[in-house]
Specification:
Blueprint: E1 9-13, E2 16-17, E3 20-27, E4 43-58, E5 61-74, E6 80-82, E7 88-89, E8 94-95, H1 96-105, H2 111-118, H3 122-139, E9 147-155, E10 158-165, E11 170-175, H4 180-187, E12 198-201, H5 205-214, E13 220-222, H6 224-244, H7 248-262, H8 270-282, H9 284-299, H10 303-308, E14 311-313, E15 324-327, E16 333-335
Parallel strand pairs: 3-5, 9-12, 12-13
Antiparallel strand pairs: 1-3, 2-3, 4-5, 5-6, 7-8, 9-10, 10-11, 14-15, 15-16
């Protein structure tokens, strides 16, 4: 089997040295037409130039193709040019299949490791990856799901909007930021938005405003995580307020209680439960806040609540200065601000 496996090429030798495979080869096809004036049969050889190209790894080793590229000169116009090599990307000094290998791996591995496997510069991997991602991005046409999720994650120090298909349990888009204009611009790409049945958001107000503007009548639900987190924050604010009243010598003990109080009661070890009970017995105000927090979490552990209840925002026109929430099970209303 020809280890080179490139049509129009002939392998001369393939030694394995300390850097990997060094494939010495030659390209057989020769031009007969001048690239400048187009005359046929007036070319002659005008020396060679040894060039090295990178190829995709073989058996875990880097691969270099060394070829003496011929130069030609036209007797009529004096134009000098190099032999055109098939299967080679001259702009990257590598084979086409090596560039394809890098673009395939760039979605699976780090640029540094790919560059080390191939034996090229990391900037080359980065440039090829950018081209590939732009190509894939241009052909990606996401569809609006029935159950739309809006949340964010921090990447490179900035909040990025993540749009998900909740029913399919998969992300469908990530936008540069979570601003109202960015989300509105993305939704405007879809002329028909009637398929959306529900939107799940956190408590970022621009999400709610855009949904009411561009998805009128579609229920907007605040997800469980951001609802129950308010209970923990409320208890933590009580703990901090009481801690500030203490003397400096005992504030460290209050700080140590933070982790235990924020854990769910069911997750505590026997020793942690003992320490928690002793602490709350001596701090009645903190005990009230802690038990209210646990009671609020327990609501979401009830099967009836999980099956039938959800908390949704009422339209901003009902409460223009605040986000008013209503529970479908008990019809209780509360403010998020």
């Amino acid at each position: 089997m020809d280890i080179l496996d490139l049509p129009g090429w002939r392998l001369l030798e393939a030694p394995l040295d300390g850097e990997g495979y060094r494939l010495v080869a030659e390209f057989l096809a020769e031009p007969d037409t001048c690239q400048r004036c187009g005359v046929i049969g007036r070319l002659y050889r005008h020396g060679t130039h040894a060039t090295t190209y990178r190829d995709s790894p073989i058996r875990g080793h880097q691969v270099r193709i060394v070829v003496s590229v011929r130069r030609y000169k036209c007797r009529d116009c004096g134009e000098t040019f190099r032999q055109a090599l098939t299967g080679i990307r001259e702009d990257r000094r590598m084979t086409e299949r090596c560039a394809q290998y890098i673009q395939k791996q760039c979605l699976l591995d780090t640029f540094v490791r790919i560059a080390a496997d191939v034996g090229c510069d990391e900037k080359t991997v980065r440039a090829l990856a950018s081209q590939h991602i732009e190509h894939v991005d241009g052909g990606y046409l996401p569809k609006l799901p029935e159950w739309l999720g809006l949340d964010e994650t921090k990447i490179d120090g900035k909040q990025r909007l993540v749009i998900t298909d909740i029913g399919g349990r998969r992300p469908i888009e990530m936008l540069a930021d979570r601003d109202r204009r960015t989300l509105a611009g993305w939704l405007h790409r879809f002329k028909d938005r009637s398929m959306v049945k529900c939107v799940a958001i956190d408590m970022w107000r621009p999400y709610l405003n855009v949904c009411h503007q561009l998805l009128p009548g579609v229920p907007v639900v605040v997800d469980k995580f951001h609802i129950v987190r308010m209970a923990s924050r409320s208890m933590e604010s009580v703990r901090i307020r009481l801690q500030k009243r203490q003397k400096a010598a005992v504030r460290r003990d209050w700080l140590r209680s933070k982790a235990t109080l924020n854990m769910r009661a069911s997750s505590l070890s026997e020793k942690q439960r003992f320490n928690r009970d002793m602490w709350l017995d001596n701090e009645p105000d903190l005990a009230v806040a802690y038990r209210l927090k646990e009671a609020f979490y327990d609501l979401f552990d009830q099967r009836v609540f999980r099956a039938a209840a959800h908390i949704r925002p009422i339209a901003p026109s009902d409460e223009p200065l605040d986000m008013l929430m209503v529970c479908s099970t008990c019809d209780a209303r509360f403010h998020t601000d």
